[in-house]
Amino acid sequence: MAGNCLGMVISLLLIYPITRIVYNVFFSPLSHVPGPICWSATRLPFIWALLRGTIVHDFEKMHRKYGPVVRTAPDEVSFASGDAWTEIYASRPDDRQFLKDPIWWRRQPGQDDSLLSAIHPAKHARMRKLLAPAFTPRALRTQEDMLQKYVSLLVERIREQVEAAGKVGTEMDMSPWFNFTTFDIFGDLGFGESFNCLQHSQYHPWISLLFGSVKAASFIAAARYYPWAESLLKKCIPRSLQEKRKRHYQQIVDKVDRRLSWELQRPDIMSYLIDESGQVVFSREELNATFLILTTAGSETTATVLTGILAYLVNQPETMGRLVQEIRGRFKSSQEISLSAASELTYLTAAIQEGLRLCPPVPWMLPRKVPTGGSVVCGTWLPAGTPVSLQAYTLNRDPSRFHAAASFIPERWLPDSSINQDSPFYHDDRRAVQPFSLGPRSCLGQHVAWAEMRLILAKLLASFDFEVVDGKRLQWEKLRTFLLVEKQPLEVRVRLAQDQWLTSKLGNWFLSVEFARRHEEARLVSVAQNPGAANTNLLRNARWMKLLTWPLLHSPVLAAHTVLYAAFSGGLGRPEHNGGYVIPWGRIHPGVAPGLARHLLREDEGGTGRAREFWEWCEERTWDYS
To answer: 474 forms bridges with which residues in the sheet?
Structure first.
């Protein structure tokens, strides 16, 4: 009898999963949705990808193969369609909203709902309405001095390291520096006190622990798909880790307590949550939970995009050069850069938009649930309760929606690209890119994020030259995702911006223009020479390039004779060419970029006077040798 019972149990254990798999693949209400059979049969491939951090890239591969609608689990569907933004995330009546999936947004034990975790629309709307005034453009203007303070401190800290290394510059991992800045800014903005990361040039212990907790959240969410696994996981967590989590949360509680005991002279986020009678309009539990999540959402995401943008820029010197030219052509120093002035830099704005496209701060939008009665999403009917998600990373890199979709090309965001039918980017689906989401749960802090990105990039590129370090290129496409992107070191060589003038073609042009001004009465014509493919000392810092191109290089004497011939022929020696720039072989440069033109002019001529400053700097350095 016992043997028969054991055999029956074993048979059931074998038959049930097989029956379940057959049902999931062939008879489920989602069996009409395309997708890989193994993912449709069981949740295990989804969980395995989640735990490995490859889920975003796995989703991209599936969408490229099966199309914009893919079944990614027995009961879940993924979308890579621009229409899904409005059909899933836009405003709807309360009973028709796609609510957040509790698997991902369940409140922590002993904590209340935060702005992000509140699932019920009414509760979320109440909290958002109270917080919204703190994140408006008007509020941002009152906080500019604080933003400027921390971004200037970032520049100062990097300058200290660069100057200590000398003219060759220094190798730096820029990824943590972006985190230092954004966390310090939010610390002051939210709690009235910085985390002092920039002050000490290292992470605050609370932030170091935060990165591990974000990764752990993926593991906890994976366990929730199987209640027995979640129960087992809770029992296996060491008491020391549980205590560490409590201390981590308590530090935020303490920061909130300290802030509420102060009276700041300037408005911050908390000041908008205190009414005229001095009472906080949030419950204390809601306040603590909300500021815990805002500290992460308001800092790590912005730092991620900044890391991605700089990674692409150093890998593309021409793009970097155009952006640097725009910034340095507008400002003589980083101290001149204000939020309003930075917002007028067209190419900088385009570079940030392109960074948000290729490096979205949230690569995949966490699942929502189809409302009662079911719904049609992107032409596909889905039963009530089906988790649905949108793949921002996949959508933003869709070759059918973007020209050269995988390439970092800021030009696609310039105004002319959307109106000029001859532009290769004319048909780009720009509306598909929604890095801050949309609808009633769109990112509340997007104005702050834009301000930080503009100010940080503008001030850094006005002050320093950044170059890729051979063998240490950061490839964004290979990064893993655990809810947020797991950043890797961004190793770059950093030099002071002025260090490049003496050996650059730009410095030669500055000198020729200033020489022409000072000696035009003597009827001397001064031009700057680009030696072209000449084997000169200009390549001394690029030996690998010299090695690769040596068969194409000419003697410097030949280059000089060619330019002299052009000068004697009458093509260059005309007064209107005085101060001009000669390009190979013996032709005057046909035009000057507007930003560079301002540097060539003196201040009394409406320029920056940079050419005159450079002449005087060179004169001072060479006086003893004259």
So the answer is: none
Nearest residue to 458 (alpha-carbon basis) of 407, 416, 497, 415: 497
State which H helix or E strand residue 377 sits in. strand 375-377
In the chain the domains, ranked by start, together with CATH numbers, are 125-500 (1.10.630.10), 505-625 (no CATH)
Task: Quickly tell me which residue has 């490839």 as its tokens.
Answer: 475
For residues 18 and 1, give the distance between their C-alpha atoms in angstroms, rounded to a whole number: 26
CA distance 562 to 564: 5
CA 55 vs. chain centroid, Å, equals: 20
* Residue in the structure block whose two tokens are 């609808």: 439
Per-residue pLDDT tens over the stretch 140-188:
999 999 999 999 999 999 999 999 988 778 999 999 999 999 999 999 9
Peptide bond into 585 cis (omega under 30): yes
Whether the CB-CB separation of 496 and 163 falls below 8 Å is answered with yes
Tokens of 365: 């939008």
Cross-sheet strand order for the sheet of 464-468: 170-173, 491-496, 464-468
- Tokens at 191, concatenated: 């709690």
Q: How far apart are CA 380 and CA 507, in angstroms?
A: 61
CA distance 119 to 104: 11
Between 608 and 493, the higher pLDDT residue: 493
DSSP 185: H
For the annotated binding site for heme, the residues are 443
CA pair distance 62, 73, nearest whole angstrom? 12
CA distance linking residue 394 with residue 124, whole number of Å? 28
Centroid of chain to Cα 100 = 25
Cα separation values, 208 from 186, 197, 328, 566, Å: 16, 11, 35, 63
Euclidean distance between the first and final Cα of the chain, in Å? 110
Residues forming the annotated binding site? 443
Element (H, E) at 381: strand 380-382
- In whole angstroms, give the CA distance from residue 369 to residue 459: 43
Place 579 in a pLDDT band, splitting at 50, 70 and 90: low
CA proximity to 368, closest of 379, 377, 381, 358: 377
